[in-house]
Amino acid sequence: MANTNSIPMLWIDPVEKLNDQVRQAFLDKGFDLRIGDSLDIEDDAFTSAEIVVVRLSKCATALKELQMKLVSLGSPAQVITRVARDLFELGIEAVRQGALTAVPSEQLAPAEWRHIVDTNVSEPKTDTSAYVFADPVSRNLLALAERVARVDVTVLLTGPTGAGKEVLSRILHDASPRFDRPFVAFNCAAMPENLIEDMLFGHEKGSFTGANKIQQGLFEQAQGGTIFLDEIGEMSYGMQAKLLRILQERSVVRLGGQKSIELDIRIIAATNRNLKQAIAEHRFREDLYFRLSAFKLSLPPLSERPLDILPLAEQFVAQQNMTGHQISISPAAQHRLVSYPWPGNVRELQNVMVRAMVLSNQRSIELEHLLFDDLHINDEFSEPASEYVPQSDRSLNWTQGSPNHGITRPNKVAGVTQRGSILANERAIKGSNVRSVLDHAVQQSERQAITEALQSSRSRDEAAEKLGISPRTLRHKLQKLREQGINVTRAYAR
Question: 216 by DSSP, 3-state: which?
Answer without folding.
Answer: strand
